[in-house]
Amino acid sequence: MSKPNSENFDGYGRKCLMVFAVVMVITLSMVAVFYAHPANQHMAIGITLAAAAVNAVFVAGYLMHIVSERRLTMLVLAFTTVFFVALLCLTIGARLSVPVGTVH
Amino acid sequence: MEIPYTIEARPDTGTYNAKIGMWLFLASEMMLFGGLFSSYILLRIGAPPGTWPHGWLSVPLGTLNTMILSLSAISTLMAWVAAKTNNYGRFKFFHACTLLLAVTFLCVKSYEYHDKFIHYEVQLKDGRIADGHMIENKKDSDHIVLHGRYVKAHSELMTMPAKGEKLDEMEIPRADIVKMENYGPWHNTFLAIYFTLTGLHALHIIGGVLVIGYLWGPGSKMWYTNHDQFTNRLEVSGLFWHFVDLVWIFLFPVLYLL
Question: What global pTM score does this model have?
Answer without folding.
Answer: 0.91
